[in-house]
Amino acid sequence: MMTLPRFQSDAHLALSVIQFYSMMTLPRFQSDAHLALSVIQFYSMMTLPRFQSDAHLALNAIRFYSMMTLPRFQSDAHLTLSVIRFYSMMTLPRFQSDAHLALSVIQFYSMMTLPRFQSDAHLALSVIRFYSMITLPRFQSDAHLVLSVIQFYSMMTLPRFQSDAHLALSVIRFYSMMTLPRFQSDEHLF
Question: From which domain of life does this come (predicted)?
């Protein structure tokens, strides 16, 4: 990949990629070929036109992945794999044709670097599970609904949510109700 123009003109980007790949020498990657392959497949996405023409988007993705060097990710393979699976969603047509939506998702995930997420693995995992809802048909066919959900979650960066973990968790638990059959089959109720 480093032979591509964008890498040749951006030494910092090239070095970031090398540092990320060095992670694969860690025991968890060595003992889990599937995890390593998933990471490689994600990075291959950067050869797509939208990544090639938007260095900022690619760099944000790399920065997010660098989070996996933190202790909580190193000790929780399931959490790491869940994050990787979510990112694979960006290969879907709707993400490929809407750079703003993809970037919004990446920006939301960056929230997990905040202290409250780092000290509460359950909260982080709950957020990831909620986002997995976007793979459901109703979300796939309604871009406005997806964006509205993302905008709502961005509220959690406000002081009141940051200082009240219980409130934030209550909101997440309520939203998880939307995965129940009665919500999925009743648009008006939703």
Answer: Eukaryota
